[in-house]
Design goal:
Helix content is 30%, strand content 26%. The chain has 11 helices and 18 strands. It is globular and about 65 Å long. It starts with 5 loop residues before the first helix and ends in a 7-residue tail after the last helix.
Length: 409
Amino acid sequence: MVGAGPSGGELARLLAQAGVDVVLVDRLSDLDHAAFSSAALPLSALDRFGLPEQVVAARWRGWQLVGPGAYGDEEGTQARHWMAAQPLGAVLDFGALRRWLASQAEGWGAAVQLGWRAVQCGSQTSSASPLIGSTMATVLQASGGQQRTITSDWVVDASGESRALLGERASRQDPLVTGVGVEWLLQLPDGQAPKWGDRLSFFLGSSWVQQGYGWIFPMAHNQLKVGVCRVSDPSRSQPPLTAELAKVLKASDLQTAPVLDRHGGRIRSSVRRREPHRKGRLLGLGDVVSTANLLGGEGIRHALTSSRVLAPLLQEALYRPSQADRILEAYPSQLRQALGWRWNLSGRLARRTWLGLADANADQRLERLLNGLQTKRAEDISSLLFDYRFERYGLKALPYLFARSQPRG
């Protein structure tokens, strides 16, 4: 298993629980490092995936959407709030999540090896496994340059958007769309965090972030995540993300807060997810097969879902090697079914929505959409943004999202 993120860690845990001999490797020597993820989930996801309280940094019960011009323009709109009486979701500590999944896998017998990067893998004949016919040899390299080789029946590439082993084979008809972001972890004094501590806050409009959005999420111990992200557009000159982040920090009166950590990253997904999920005995998982959703930059739930789909199929293939090809043919279709048609629709909306959000005209269209969200229930906003239930606002939202000229690029 190459990659100890949510997908790789979860699959390693599930297979180890089933008695499979698993080796989980990751290029990081410390799974707390490079913890770039907004990591917001609905409460139902905690129950579905059995995530413990120790990976939860904060719970939230509402939404705040800051539209174009708000906080910075006398004629600008005010922030819109939706609050529930009880918590609706959680923000995870991404490093704690990775550590917990790895420790769970290790507790069930998996070998966890950190600080090793997979540089190549390939099949080799195996006289010791005549029923299987061949095994995989994966070459790992440490930061100091030393190498080692692991032999296994199967290899799972869960290395994220880098696709370290499976590689990039998206078609011209369904290319990889890239989202990039930066995020700071801030420490606030007592009394300042409650303003942000019980809600997910988003900053929408080109006056905040061109072709993207900003966010403020609560964390534990008077800490906040503040970040910005955008869809990359090679046809347009885009401002530096650090400058966009500075606008959000200043408008929120957070520009002087001590910064505990600065991190960033990117996601790359195809919209239709038609890239190969398998190459011989090498399987792709999570972001490697484009499970990251570009509309809200959400990846954790969908990565965990891919592990839940692949685990029983791979386990069956291990115990019935002569029928492995037939068994694993079902993997792409079962994953598409698990993600659902709304996931696919949201991916198509993402490219159109964010690439088009680049000027005042787009801000006016966005403002009309926000004005159309007449619900008073925070639960309805969660259903829209987490469950992609666009039909509730179809007469208002879909004309905004579809009845426009195609953005450049």
